[in-house]
Design brief:
- By secondary structure, this protein is an alpha+beta fold.
- It is built from eleven helices and four strands.
- Strands 1-2-3-4 form a four-stranded antiparallel sheet.
- The longest helix has 73 residues.
- It is elongated and about 135 Å long.
- The two termini are 60 Å apart.
Length: 464
Amino acid sequence: MTKDQTLAFANERLIRATADQEPISGPISLYEAMARALKYNLDTKVEIMEAALKVRELDLANYSALPKLVANSGYAGRNEADASTPSTRDKDIFSDDLTFSWNILDFGLSYVRAKQAADEALIQEEMKRKIVNRVIEDVRTAYWRAASYERLVGRMHALQGRIAGALKDTRRLANSAESSPLVALTYERELIQIQREIELLEGELQVAKSQLAALMNVRPGSKYTLAVPSRRPTKLGLPDKVGDLFQVAATNRPEMREVAYRMRINDKEVDAALLELLPNFNLYAGVNYDSNKFIASNDWVSWGAKVSWNAMKLATMPVVMKKVEAQGAALDARSLSVAMAIMTQVHISRVRYAHQRKSYGTAAALSNVSHRILKQVRSETEAQKTSQQILIREEMNALLADAKLDMAYADLQNAYANVYASLGLDPFPRDLNTKASVTVIAEKLKGMWAQEGAKARLEVAGLQ
């Protein structure tokens, strides 16, 4: 490819990567963010396309079981070696035939391969479910962190100028000996430490908005706002019997279903190997035409049957069976490994959710007391009982506590979604059509993640 061709190819992809998408018309809610990720996220699109490709391959495999209908047309010519000898054929001959043939062994093998292709299509569907679950989890985490940034960014910017002024005053007091140098330096250190923590949190939260844009497939650098909702308590509503949760997870998780389908594909390899041992029986019938005028009839119908048998297949059969057995043993071991991993993930997700709820409660208590202290300090500052520097310090502490509260809530939301993902419950309705508008998809998702929707999901899973 030339440099211009490479440049044209790259530019076209850059344009098409975010083309044909509904424009953002207002603040984006959580469910709209999830809807845009389902509809436009390129990782999700790739999995959907791969699933569609496997279905097309299945259709093609089904057609391979059909009989063959082959048309042939040919020409043959030769020179006469001895002109004195009468010829028994024309110099130029045209021939045609249309032959219908059916190989019974090929039909049996095609049937088995079609069944295996059907399982491959089901495996790809499970991979799509796995990717969608991950994308929805990531959207929830990135959304709440980005919402935290939008909630706090105004306060952060308002404090920047006041912090710079407070630090300047503190250094002036230290240099002029109006205050104890150690006290002034200690206060300056506290301000800088708090400012550093806030800057670190701001950087982390700011990145979350870019991550959310990538998940929604919004062009990097595009300006958009979020509909910042109030924090609401989450409740799993799961039964206390851990064994029931393990059973639901092992039944619904894409990884376990994938292993089950692969074991079924491997079992069909035994059928294919046995079929290949059978004789090859071929039936055929056709109509023929030959332009040679020296033959009695220029067109005729032919039919027949052929039987062939590859005796070498008997020699390879033990090796094939050992391979199938080894593959089956490997898949069985893998299924046990997956089962153990699923149980561990279910347990860890519940422990993590409980820990995040506790952390969120602690962060809420810290935010509450920080605001109470700030209120008290503000009253004393207005009464000129304390300095502006102390007020600024407490405002920074309150801002830091609020940021940590929002991050704790984002982690809690992620842990909440992770519990359902560990159970293999889909984060979207089964009748969801990604070709629908973003608004329609968002409404369906909202109904699914609402309290009633979550209860319905548990009922479907047999947990209610």
